[in-house]
Design brief:
The structure holds 2 protein chains of 2 kinds. By secondary structure, chain A is mainly alpha-helical. Chain A is built from 1 helix and no strands. The chains are: A mainly alpha, B mainly alpha.
Chain lengths: ~45, ~240
Amino acid sequence: MSQWSFVTAAYAVALIATACLLLWAWSSMRKAEAAADELKRRR
Amino acid sequence: MHRFANPARFLKIARPATAWLLLFGLALTAIALFGGLALTPPDYLQGETVRIMYVHVPAAWLGMAGWAGIAAAAVAQLVWRHPLAAVAGRALAPAGATFAAICLMTGSIWGRPTWGTWWEWDGRLTSMLILFFLYLGYIALAEAEKERGGEGRLAALFGLVGAINLPIIHYSVLWWRTLHQGQSLSLEGSSIEFSILWPLLVSALGFTCLFGAAVLMRMRAELAQAKVEARMRRAAAE
């Protein structure tokens, strides 16, 4: 295998894992804040 | 630190800070990775694989910084009963675990062409793997305590005890001179040529901003969930 295959694999792992972390954190924040706002509006 | 003990005050700062950290983080990481892939020369010894450093090293730093943050939050919780400390500890753990996992995986990918092996029970590799397992233990413990309505004191104690692993990781390359290379960058200076070093510094800053954004987003999620649960409990009691 060429050295670039290892470089590509390492960058792919790092970027995909970071993107997954950010997406999960963002979606959980949006969901929780939407639920809190909804409850506030209903009162 | 006590100024931010009030969640409302914290949220006032955290809301704009999340967006700025995310934007700066994405921009800096993109610049650093482009620089690392296209603008820097290959290493005379390692060749092109040296470019793995630009994702591996920031991940290692953030994996360790995440646990240092958990330990600091544990002190704030146990000593000053800071109301946001347990929330911060729980928010730091998944981000720290992700970067510890990235460090282990990219290190393994780097090890194959450099050392001829994917894994070795070397002091640095093993102590980093222990850090990853500590993160998993902390996440499980903190979630279990939260579900039982506890204050998170057990998780805080676990966070403090687990911090013993941080100096072990740091000094492992000096204590056990096996496979992992020694320290080449410290506060005193660097043995890396600047043409190879600059993307590493930018990448570290970029990933740190993304790490910070993820932690703030998790803290905001936890605070919003707590608000919903408190309102539901109040509604059920009325």
